[in-house]
Specification:
about 450 residues, alpha/beta, Rossmann fold, 10-stranded mixed β-sheet, 13 helices, binds alpha-D-glucopyranuronic acid
Length: about 450
């Protein structure tokens, strides 16, 4: 019974195969790609990152802001010219665009101008049972017009599962899924996908988007995917977009589809992503005001964790061959001639770009130190002034919370769950948080 839905999918959707990533085979190309960026930047050596094995848990007894910070966190509400931002209008018209420009140029890279059209088709629409709930499952494909460079083909993969019986358009929880989670849709019955059950129990739909169908997750793949299509198979320039920005662009294209589907409420679409996709959903939220809210799980360095916080993963790690492709080439400078204190911005300002919309940030207390729970919490605290300026409520505390204590009195929420590097344990709390807004 449980597996009914999967069997239906298995039969109906043989094409829904996730391509295995040729990580090993591509190593030499990745190194070559990173090397050419270093040449463009005239950098000869980069510092090595922290060894994950040496990461120590943060000491919760230390005072907020004193331990673990390199330099000072930039002020979100001070303009580049040093003048304070005191009105919402100044935020929208002056400060926010300044921050976006920094994130574009130095961290995530710029989306090319004149992006091609994406045409969505419903490849299959089946009625099925998802754990006793009658659902409709739509398998979608977003084909990117590649007439400018036919050598690269991009088909964005998205699956939407929604209650079969609805009276009005339903909200959507959209996950940016790891290939193994996405593959479970076609695999054997799965008992761990509890968040999907909870979403359906609320009468909402859930969507699973496959980021690697937009952009492969390695440096060698940068001449393919949407980045390669736009570059016509050439190397990136230092301020061109990285994979995180490309995945976020793809999430916006999925939202374009949702806007055309009258059974779904496009004004109530939340994003969820874990780890690298936890970074990505914050970026998607920052750049696309149509997304209603976000659950960013264990996003760490390059996501919600302050670059300037020294516990957990560091800027230098993200500049390694395994991760540099997530970011703009310019980010490499900060592990070479520059360091994290030279960054004109920090992670709190990425969170602030989501304002005034609700943001839920989760991390694990046990063996999730690589994601930098404390540096993440501090970033969310420091996004508070922007929320307050826009008439919303911040976290409501600057005290690092106890394990499993939900901090959600305002529009910014934080929860340090008792487990490790997983989004699962905070899902019920995110749904509780979302329910405040989607009654
Ligand atoms: C690595 C990386 C992290 C990233 C994580 C993931 O641990 O260092 O920055 O978040 O992979 O995405 O799984």
């Amino acid at each position: 019974m449980k597996s009914a839905v999967y069997i239906v999918l298995l039969a109906a959707l043989p094409f829904l195969q996730v391509q295995a990533q040729a990580v090993d085979k591509s190593k030499s190309n990745t190194a070559q790609d990173r090397q050419q960026l270093l040449q463009q930047l005239q950098i000869t050596t980069l510092r090595r990152g922290t060894d994950p094995a040496l990461i120590k848990a943060f000491d919760p007894n230390s005072e907020l802001g004193k331990l673990g910070l390199y330099g000072k966190i930039p002020e979100a509400l001070v303009l580049n010219n040093g003048k304070p931002v005191t009105t919402a209008k100044q935020w929208w018209q002056q400060r926010r665009p300044e921050l976006v420009e920094f994130f574009d140029r130095e961290i995530y890279g710029r989306v090319p101008k004149n992006m091609p059209k994406v045409t969505w088709t419903v490849d299959s629409r089946v009625n099925a049972m998802h754990h006793q709930v009658p659902v409709i499952i739509k398998i979608l494909k977003g084909h990117v017009d590649n007439s400018s460079y036919p050598a690269v083909n991009v088909d964005i993969q998205l699956v939407i599962t929604q209650p079969a019986k609805i009276k009005k358009p339903v909200p959507v929880m959209m996950e940016l899924s790891f290939p193994e989670d996405f593959r479970q849709l076609t695999g054997p019955a799965d008992t761990t996908n509890l968040w999907q059950d909870e979403v359906l129990a609320k009468g909402w739909a859930y969507a699973m988007l496959l980021p690697v169908s937009i952009q492969t997750d390695n440096g060698a793949g940068l001449t393919q995917g949407i980045i390669g299509l736009m570059n016509k198979g050439q190397f990136r320039k230092p301020d061109d977009w990285g994979a995180v920005r490309a995945w976020a662009w793809g999430a916006s294209r999925a939202l374009d589809y949702i806007e055309t589907d009258h059974s779904l409420d496009a004004k109530k679409v939340a994003l969820e992503g874990h780890s690298r996709y936890g970074k990505t959903v914050l970026v998607a939220m920052a750049y696309d005001p149509r997304f209603a809210m976000v659950y960013s799980s264990s996003s760490g360095e390059g996501g919600a964790k302050l670059h300037r916080h020294n516990a957990g993963e560091q800027v230098e790690n993200i500049c390694s061959t395994g991760a540099y492709h997530w970011m703009a080439g310019n980010f490499l400078k900060y592990a070479g001639p520059l360091n994290c204190t030279d960054l004109p911005i920090d992670a709190h300002e990425l969170i602030a770009l989501a304002a005034p919309r609700p943001v839920f940030i989760g991390v694990g207390a046990n063996k999730d130190d690589w994601a930098g729970p404390k540096g993440t919490f501090m970033a969310e605290v420091s996004a508070g002034p922007v929320y307050r300026l826009l008439g919303k409520k911040d976290l409501g505390t600057t005290n690092y919370p106890a394990v499993d204590q939900m901090v959600a009195s305002g529009d910014l929420a934080f929860r340090l769950h008792h487990g490790g590097h997983t989004p699962a344990l905070n899902w019920p709390y995110f749904i509780e948080f979302a329910s405040k807004y989607w009654k």
